[in-house]
Sequence to fold (232 residues):
Amino acid sequence: MSRTITIVNSQGGVGKTTTAVGLSRALARNNNKVLLVDVDPLTTLNQRLGAPPAQRPTVYECLMGESRAADCIAGTAWGVDLMPATVELVKFEAEGLNLDRRDTRLRQVLSADADIQMHYDYIIVDTPASMGLLTVNALAAAHEVIIPIRCNYFASNGLASLLAMIGRVRQQLNPQLELRGLLLTHVDTELRAWQRNLDEITKVYADTLLPIPIVEGDGLDECYTELANKLY
Ligand SMILES: Nc1ncnc2c1ncn2[C@@H]1O[C@H](COP(=O)(O)OP(=O)(O)OP(=O)(O)O)[C@@H](O)[C@H]1O
Ligand SMILES: [Mg+2]
Fold:
C-alpha cells in the first residue's frame, strides 16, 4: 500500500513544489516507486520535471469523475511518475462545490485504483498556495502532511489558520492524518537575521519542527536526501 504525503502551506513561494520534487527524487533514488500528483493549477510541477504540457486526461478530469488515475499518469526523466495538472484545474474550486463527496474526491481517485496502491510506495501531493477545495482534497487524501516554511520574518503568517484547517480535516474527513512536521526552507546562515527568525519560529513551533533544514541555494539534493533518509 502506498503512503500519501501532502505538501501544504497557504503562503506562496515557501518551497512546496521544491519539496515535493526534492523529496520524490530522494525517495526514488532509494529505490522507492514514487508518484507525484499536481493539485496546483499553476502546474509548476510539470515545468520543474521538464515534462511537456499535460495531455488530457489530468487530475481535473479525475476529480470530476470523468477519468481514472491510471489514464493520467506519465513517466518523467527523473525516475518519478507524474499525475499532471493543467490550468483547467482551477475550475474545480467552483465546479466542485456542487458535487457530492466534494472534499474526498482525490482520496477516492487514488484509492479506487488498486494497481496504484500496490505499485507506488509513496504518493506525493503538491498543493496551491490557498486553503480552498483543492487543498482540502489533498489533505483528505493524505496519511501525513509536511508544511514547508520559509525561514524569514513572515514564516508564521497564516500558519495558525493552516494548522486549524488541518485539525478540521482530521476531525471531519480523515482521522488518520498525521502532521509530520514543519520543514524549514530557504535557510541562509549568512543572513544576519537568520538566527532571530529561527528563534521566533522555535519559540512557538519547536515540537513540530522537522530536524533537517533545507538550505538556501546549492545543496538542495543533499538536504532532501537527508530528509528522506531520516523520515522514511
Ligand atoms: N531551499 C531553497 N533555496 C533556494 N531557492 C529555493 C529553495 N526552495 C525553493 N526555492 C526557490 O524558491 C522559489 C519558490 O519555490 P517553490 O516554487 O518550491 O515554492 P511554492 O511554495 O511551491 O510556491 P507556490 O506557492 O507559488 O506554489 C522557486 O524559484 C524555487 O526554485
Ligand atoms: Mg508550488
Notes: The first helix runs from residue 16 to 29. The chain has one domain: 3-231.
